[in-house]
TrEMBL record:
Binding site for Mg(2+): 233, 257
Binding positions for substrate per the UniProt entry: 48, 105, 233, 254-257
Domain PEP-utilising enzyme C-terminal, residue spans: 5-357
Family classification: Belongs to the PEP-utilizing enzyme family.
Section covered of the full-length record: 514 to 877 of 877
Active site residues according to the UniProt entry: 319
Lineage: Bacteria, Bacillati, Bacillota, Clostridia, Eubacteriales
Name under which the protein is recorded: Pyruvate, phosphate dikinase
Length: 364
């Protein structure tokens, strides 16, 4: 049951007494967030904001925002339409989490993912925006990429279009202030910037985010706290983690992208040959499911060591798929992470695995 009562509840209680790792959840909706809380989640480690952009009520504004290529004014108008909806998203999530920490990640995927593919949908959008169909097709093709996972996504989007990051930061902050004032929950939002690989990407965006966060605090006369941190999901970020930690107030390892980029395996297509690799003894496990201790794991250890060289108390989590895998959780415990974050239904397993890792360490 969601309450995890009876004998099972007792085992979970013992697990919680034993474990050192905190367990958070990956959740983008208030419903997922409250299910995870019932399963014992201690916060949200990753709130992906892209799914919210696909909502049918806001997709038209999202598309207008993307296609307003040459007009800042049109983009800002579309963003102003999205802002109140985005704010409502966060209000719902903060309320469900009742004051527990919430890490919200700024928009990550390439923008063409939000654009229509079918001719009839392109025609409808062109008519809606008063643009000729042929011109619309040209703009859409111009945004497509051959290798989108290595393309114009993550923090690169926020650098080209800071106004998207600004809108999201405003929504994150205004929602937190409102929930604090109206519901009494002391939310400390953690604003997370994806796909950092160059220190200057972070220092640039840290200023963009902080300027708006401070502006909102002033407008609302609020002294609310917030953190700005980064995903660690590009191998280069782990190699310069000491520089990154000078700005970042927390790290979260995105082991899905980190595995993809360390192996050079596409996370969307690798399934086609990983079974062969396992059958032929080339790989013992699917590295997207269970952390590759020898390779990707070393990058995690290096990121932790360098980050804490700069900030000894740096909060460090993991929010890739591996955050809910028991074998990987043992590795993250030993690497000294502060928390793991996994899907709501894996939270109880993660609590048990974290306790087992602590027990094994104590036995040694
Ligand atoms: C990751 O890369 O591990 C991650 C958590 O982000 P996403 O899966 O959304 O790319
Ligand atoms: Mg990622």
């Amino acid at each position: 049951t969601p309450e995890l009562s009876g004998h099972f509840g007792q085992i979970m209680k013992w697990s919680d007494e034993m474990r050192k790792l905190k367990v958070r959840t990956n959740a983008d909706t208030p419903n997922d967030a409250s299910v995870a809380v019932q399963f014992g989640a201690e916060g949200i480690g990753l709130c992906r904001t892209e799914h919210m952009f696909f909502d049918e009520h806001r997709l038209p504004s999202v598309r207008r925002m993307i296609l307003a290529e040459s007009s800042k004014e049109l983009r800002e108008k579309a963003l102003a339409e999205i802002l109140p909806m985005q704010k409502e998203d966060f209000i719902g999530i903060y309320k469900a989490m009742e004051g527990r920490p919430v890490t919200v990640r700024l928009l990550d995927p390439p923008l063409h993912e939000f654009l229509p593919k079918e001719t009839k949908d392109i025609e409808a959008l062109a008519a809606d925006m008063g643009i000729a169909f042929e011109d619309m097709v040209t703009v859409i093709h111009g945004l497509e990429e051959f290798n989108p996972m290595l393309g114009h996504r993550g923090c690169r989007l926020a650098i080209t279009y800071p106004e998207i990051a600004e809108m999201q930061t405003r929504a994150i902050m205004e929602a937190a202030i409102e929930v604090k004032e109206q519901d009494g929950f002391d939310v400390i939002p953690e604003i997370m910037i994806p796909l950092i690989g160059i220190n200057e990407e972070l220092t640039y965006l840290d200023k963009v985010v902080r300027n708006i966060a401070e502006l909102v605090k002033k407008e609302k006369n609020s002294d609310i706290k917030y953190l700005v941190g980064t995903m660690m999901e590009i191998p280069r970020a782990t190699l310069i983690a000491d520089q990154i930690a000078e700005t970042a107030e927390f790290f979260s390892f995105g082991t899905n992208d980190l595995t993809q980029m360390t192996y050079g395996f596409s996370r969307d297509d690798a399934g086609k040959f990983i079974t062969d690799y396992k059958d032929k003894g080339i790989l013992p496990n699917d590295p997207f499911q269970s952390i590759d201790v020898e390779g990707v794991g070393k990058l995690v250890e290096m990121g932790v060591m360098l980050g804490r060289k700069t900030k000894p108390d740096l909060k460090i989590g993991v929010c890739g798929e591996h955050g809910g895998d028991p074998k990987s959780i043992t590795f993250f415990h030993n690497a000294g992470l502060s928390y793991v974050s996994c899907s709501p239904f894996r939270v109880p397993i993660a609590r048990l695995a974290a306790a087992q890792a602590a027990l094994n360490e104590a036995k040694k």
